[in-house]
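Thread: Newbie trying to understand structure tokens

Hi all, I'm a second-year student working on a class project, and my supervisor (Dr. K.) asked me to get a predicted structure for one chain before our next meeting. I've only ever worked with sequences, so writing a 3D structure as a token string is new to me. If someone could post the tokens and maybe explain what I'm looking at, I'd be very grateful. Here's the chain:
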Amino acid sequence: TVNLTQSGSNYLNATINGQNNSLTTNQSNTGGSHYAETTILGSSNTVNHTQSGNANQLLFSNISGSNNTVTSTQSGTAQHYLNVNLTGNGHTVTSSQTGGSSNNANLDLTNSGGASNVDLQQTGGKSFNLIQSCTNPAGCSTVVRQ
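---
Reply by user tm_fold:
Sure, no problem. This is what the structure looks like when written as tokens:
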């Protein structure tokens, strides 16, 4: 289990490899930018990202394996960007981009086997790109709320 809190202009690059790991990040500040990149390899890992404050926020997640859970929250008045690449099956991704003048998300799902779920909530200026590639019709489940 890793819990990381950063304030000021932030940069984070973390990799989780294995099973049943937990990573919690909290980046906050009133200027500059937040940048986080995480790679999750394996199964049944849990990742929670929070980026807040009046700073530009960029979050990149590359997830492979099975049954991983990723929750991200980007809030504040600056720009938010989210890029999630999923490979595998059974993942759950819940993302919220609120309050930003520009909220952009890129979601790329490549599933083999069981369904993965992605729930994206955006307010303010909003834009998203969704790419799905599934081996069977039941292979993907995506919800986008604006």
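A couple of things are worth pointing out once you decode it. The CA atoms of residues 9 and 32 lie 5 Å apart. The mean pLDDT is 86. Feel free to ask follow-ups in this thread.
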